[in-house]
Amino acid sequence: MAENLPNLDHLQKWVGREDVAQDLVTQILIDRFRATLPAWLYDTGDAAPLGLHWCLFAPNVPTDNLGPDGHGAHGEFLPPVPFESRMWAGGQLQFHAAIHAGDIVVRTSRIASVVAKAGRSGPLVFVKVAHEYGVGAVRVITERQDLVFRPMQSKQLAALAFIENGVEGSFTGDAVTLFRYSALTFNSHRIHYDYPYATQVEGYADLVVHGPLQATLLMNAMARDMGNPMVGLAYRGVSPLTANTPAALERRDGTYLLKKPDGTATFEAYPIPSETSQ
C-alpha cells in the first residue's frame, strides 16, 4: 500500500512550526456557552465551564481565503496537505487551572508531527498539533489535537461545483457565510443553516440570507457613496433571498436595492435625514 502514497516528505518542514494567539474571556461568552448546553455542564461556579477554551481564538480568515470545506487554506501554520477533506480525529487534554471572565488567554500551538499512511479508501495524512494555554504565568490547559486529511471522493468533488456560482459585483450568500453570520449574531433560526428544515419544513428554495445581513450590505454601500459612516437609513425586506443566488446592488431614485438575476428585489433601503440636536 505504501507505493500508493504521494511523496509528502516536504511536509516535514512544518514540524516544530509555532503559532501564538490570544483572546479575552468575556462574561457574555460564558453565558452563551451555558445557555447552549445548560444541562450538560459541570458547575464550575464563577469560573468558565470546561470546554469553553474551544470557543476562543475564532479564526478570522477572510471568506475569500476559505476552502470549499469552510476551513482556512493550509500552508501557513498547518502544513499544505494536498487533500481536500479534513477532520478532527481526536486528541487529549489536561486542565491545570481555572479560566475566568476577564482573563486574557494565550495559546501557543506547535506542529508536533506529520505522518502519511495508506488507508483502506486511499492516502491519509495525520497532523498532531500541541497546544498550551496560559493566563499570565499560569499554565491552565495542555492539549493535543489529532487532525486527519484525506482526498475527497469524486461524488464529493462534484457537489462543490454549485458553490462557485458567484457573479462579479454581486453578493452570493453561500452556506459558509450564512453560518458565520449566524454564529456572530448567536442566531439560532434554522432557516439560515439547516437546509432540510429550510427547504422541507418552511418551503424555501435554499438556506435564507439574513435580513440584517442584507441591510448591512446596503448601509455600507450608502456610507461609501456618502463618504461618511454616520448614515441614517430606513430599510425593509421585499422578498426572500436564498443561498447560492447572486444579489446585485442597484441604486434607483435615492433607494438602494438588492436584486436577483431575474430582477426581483429582495431588500431595499433609503437614506433618512440625520438627527439634529434641538
Describe it for me?
- The protein has helices spanning 27-36, 154-159, 175-185, 195-201, 211-226, and strands at residues 18-24, 85-95, 104-119, 122-135, 138-150, 170-172, 233-237, 246-252, 255-259, 265-271.
- It folds into two domains: 7-159, Hotdog Thioesterase (Thiol Ester Dehydrase, Chain A, Roll), CATH 3.10.129; 165-271, Hotdog Thioesterase (Thiol Ester Dehydrase, Chain A).
- The chain is of the alpha+beta class.
Summarize the structure in short:
With 278 residues, this protein is an alpha+beta fold.
Integer-rounded radius of gyration = 23 Å
- Please state how the strands of the largest beta sheet are arranged side by side: 1-3-4-5-2
Distance between the termini: 80 Å
Look at the structure and give the CATH class of the largest domain: Alpha Beta
Q: What is the succession of H and E elements?
A: EHEEEEHEHHHEEEE
CATH superfamily of the largest domain: Hotdog Thioesterase
**Fraction in beta strands:** 25-35%
Helix count, DSSP H or I runs of 4 or more residues: 5
CATH topology label of the largest domain: Thiol Ester Dehydrase, Chain A
Q: Quick one: biggest sheet?
A: 5 strands, antiparallel
Binned, the helix content reads 10-25%
